TrEMBL record:
Protein name: FAD-dependent oxidoreductase 2 FAD-binding domain-containing protein
Molecular functions per Gene Ontology: steroid dehydrogenase activity, acting on the CH-CH group of donors
Record's keyword terms, sorted: Flavoprotein, Oxidoreductase
InterPro entries: FAD-dep_OxRdtase_2_FAD-bd, FAD/NAD-bd_sf, KsdD_DH, Succ_DH/fumarate_Rdtase_cat_sf
Organism, as annotated: Leifsonia shinshuensis
Span of domain FAD-dependent oxidoreductase 2 FAD-binding: 6-531
Length: 549
């Protein structure tokens, strides 16, 4: 008979792996159960761009960026907008996470072999106010190796521990129930699913071939959010973001299904802030999909002209890369499920990055030669592939040809005269080195940061300039991604009940816990905070269990 472990971790994603590693570091034993095949070890984090939020890092200082804990706190709380009684623990988690990001986070990762691309990105540039939403400075640190590079040290440690018997990895084990005895969670029950050779992220079967029951003094729920379950996304969709879209792309695999949230609630967990969520408006259909409705997010620079489905320009400061949820709210209130970028070849070459490890072979593969091409002429290979093969791209030599192509992809009437007016008005602002267009002012301001000028923001130019062409239009869809609410926890990751008291034996980490406390981001995130939230919450839970096991 296999000895009872010190802890069971439900979910083999980043948060679960980090919690397991902390327990292993403390000499404890751990069993990890996950419904997916071994190919999907590492969960959603593997697919990520590997962006991590750090404060006053050496990378920032080398790029001429002055950052501080006080400025980051101002940005975080200005973005979060905490305004509920349930935000007690989320606010405490936010304070703790900021201290972590400004303190030992980088050294802790560095010790594990994680390294960073030297140019720091500037994500979520904000709503135009000093105290409001957004990052005042660049803080998006791209991991050398992207998502796989973030996951690798924790996967390596867990796999090494399985060889010595300190850890067990049980794939194809789907938890259906948390075992509660005398008010304490003492284990898990569920179904053993039929083996499946599905590649990473692809759908796997749900055929039951047996049952299992496992017991341990502590259980960590690290099962992720609801982004792959569009029914749950629509059910939780808040009125403040308008009506939920009829059509959405999925930025996560189908197994990100939210099942464990209801299972944890049945065992006494308190779920909070379920209406807080993070979805992108710059999704494009993957021409080579791995899962159903597989979407990729464009990580845009600030220069593309952004129009709603009818052809009207989005208001300031809803520029590309500035305010994700503000843009989502505005677009949903226009009543259509998509929008448009209009840009040029010159812009796409410098400003289009694609989220996802598989879309960045240079960074993911740590290929310096391939990486060098980013500063040379031409767009990165994956971007060019989408331009040539993607269903959402229109490429044309003239504005009239571009408009004809946009009309072919439109599901609602496109006002071509309105689009033409917006393009002409914007281009006239470039007859001088000054003007009143706030987006062009933002572009010029961004280029004052050497990282943006080097690899991220094109020099201002007219969209109709043939020397910058061809012209390009991109149809953008809403892309599901992250749950910002979840299981309420204290700073040790202990799951709290509706009465505010811990549920004995039960812990939560990662997206299942709203990345800590049931909603550490509040209403809005600053980007680069999701992977870090998985690691920090998993670390907190693992260390707390190790102290008591």
């Amino acid at each position: 008979m296999t000895p009872e472990p010190d802890c069971i971790v439900v979910g083999a994603g980043l948060a679960g792996l980090v919690a397991a590693c902390e327990l292993l570091d403390a000499g404890k034993t751990v069993t990890i159960v996950d419904q997916e095949p071994a190919a999907s070890l590492g969960g959603q984090a593997f697919w990520s761009f590997g962006g991590l939020f750090l404060i006053d890092s050496p990378e920032q200082r080398r790029m001429g960026v002055t950052d501080s804990l006080a400025l980051a706190r101002q940005d975080w709380f200005g973005s979060a907008g905490f305004d509920r009684a349930e935000d007690h623990w989320p606010k405490r988690w936010a304070e703790a996470y900021l201290q972590f990001a400004a303190g030992e986070k980088r050294a802790w990762l560095h010790e594990k072999g994680v390294r960073f691309f030297p140019v720091v990105g500037w994500a979520e540039r904000g709503d135009g106010t000093a105290g409001g939403h957004g990052n005042s400075v660049p803080r998006f640190h791209i991991t050398w190796g992207t998502g796989p590079g973030v996951v690798e040290p924790f996967v390596r440690q867990v796999q090494a521990a399985t060889a010595t018997g300190k850890a067990r990895l049980l794939h194809r084990h789907r938890v259906d129930e948390l075992i509660v005895e005398d008010g304490r969670v003492v284990g898990v029950r569920g179904e053993i699913l039929k083996p499946d050779a599905a590649k990473r992220g692809a759908p796997s079967n749900r055929e039951r071939i047996g049952d299992f029951e496992l017991r341990a003094p502590a259980v960590v729920v690290a099962s992720g959010g609801i982004g792959g379950n569009h029914d749950l996304v629509r059910a939780a969709w808040p009125e403040r973001l308008g009506t939920p879209p009829d059509f959405m792309l999925s930025g996560v695999p189908a197994h990100v299904d939210g099942r464990m949230l209801g299972i944890a609630e049945a065992a006494g967990a308190h779920l909070i802030n379920g209406d807080r969520m993070w979805h992108y408006t710059e999704g494009i259909q993957n021409w080579d999909p791995i899962w159903q409705r597989h979407g990729i997010r464009i990580l845009p620079g600030p220069s593309s002209l952004w129009l709603d489905a009818h052809g009207d320009r989005l208001p300031a400061p809803l520029f590309p890369g500035f305010d994700t949820l503000g843009t989502l709210e505005h677009l949903r209130r226009t009543g259509s499920d998509y929008s448009w970028f209009i840009l040029t070849q010159k812009i796409i070459e410098k400003e289009f990055a694609l989220s996802g490890s598989e879309q960045n072979p240079d960074l993911t593969g740590k290929d310096v030669g391939l990486l060098a091409k980013r500063v040379g002429p031409g767009a990165p290979g994956p971007v060019e592939a989408f331009k040539e093969k993607g269903a959402d791209f229109v490429v044309a030599d003239t504005l009239d040809q571009l408009l004809a192509g946009m009309k072919r992809l439109s599901e609602v009437p496109l006002d071509t005269e309105l689009v033409t007016r917006h393009v002409r008005e914007r281009d006239r602002q470039l007859d001088n080195g000054f003007g009143k267009d706030l987006q062009l002012a933002a572009v010029r301001g961004a280029r004052a940061y050497r990282g943006d000028k080097l690899i991220r923001v094109a020099a201002p130019h007219k969209l109709t300039d043939p020397k910058a062409g061809p012209m390009i239009a991109v149809k953008l869809h809403i892309l599901t991604r992250k749950s910002l609410g979840g299981i309420e926890t204290d700073l040790d990751g202990r799951v709290l009940g509706a009465d505010g008291a811990p549920v004995p034996g039960l812990y939560a980490a990662g997206e299942a816990s709203g990345f800590g406390g049931g909603g550490v981001h509040g209403y809005r995130a600053l980007e680069g905070t999701f992977l870090g939230g998985c690691m920090f919450s998993g670390r907190q839970a693992g260390r707390a269990i190790a102290r008591t096991a």
